[in-house]
Amino acid sequence: RGVQPTLKFEHQLVQFKFNIKSGSAKAEEENLKVTALTLDALNRGDLYVAGETLGFRNVSTTPASLNLFGFDGYKVPNAGAEAARIGDCIMVIPNTVNGLLQADDTFSGKIYLTQETMTEAVPVGFTLKFSDVKDVPVNSKNIPVISAFEAGYSFDITIKVYSLEKIEISAELAEWVNGG
């Protein structure tokens, strides 16, 4: 009685949020549209949040291709416009080998682009490297607070579309979005 429990929650996944932006007037002229986005994760498994054994079970290093949901096609914004959020978040198990985060942490994926005159979307591959993440905060000893795509952190990924064949990826540490 009168005792208030203290509950500590820690996110076990990495959160990726995606934004789309025009990289050139050509993208606007071509009237490009994003129809899908996939991200390949190194690990897959089951996350248990209740019971005697918490955490991940049945983790496999069989890559998992994850789809971005929450949108039904998205027209690439006009050149000069701000980047626009597309879809929901993709949540992934951090890339680990034998429980250790990888120094060369990388995810690959594909964005699918189309034009009004096309019947099938064109997949354009991309590589997302942690070493490319902008403005990672540092501690008092000037050491980055994180060194890989770690659980509990969220990242804004901006995809600049130049044409059906050319895109550019950038990433930055972001605020966690609940429910995504």
Would you write up a description of this structure?
The model has no long low-confidence stretch (mean pLDDT 83). The strands form four sheets. This protein has a five-stranded mixed beta sheet. Strands 2, 5, 6, 10 and 11 form a five-stranded antiparallel beta sheet that branches. It is built from one helix and 14 strands. By secondary structure, it is mainly β. Helix content is 3%, strand content 46%.
Summarize the entry for a quick read.
This protein is mostly beta strands and 180 residues long. It has 1 helix and 14 strands.
How many H/I helical runs?
1
- Rg for CA atoms: 19 Å
| Overall average pLDDT | 83
Strand line-up across the major sheet: 7-1-13-14-12
Class by helix and strand content? mainly beta
User: How far is the N terminus from the C terminus?
Assistant: 36 Å
Strand content: over 45%
Q: Shape from CA axes?
A: globular
Low-pLDDT windows of residues: none
Fraction in helix: under 10%
Order of helices and strands: EHEEEEEEEEEEEEE
Describe the main β-sheet briefly. 5 strands, mixed
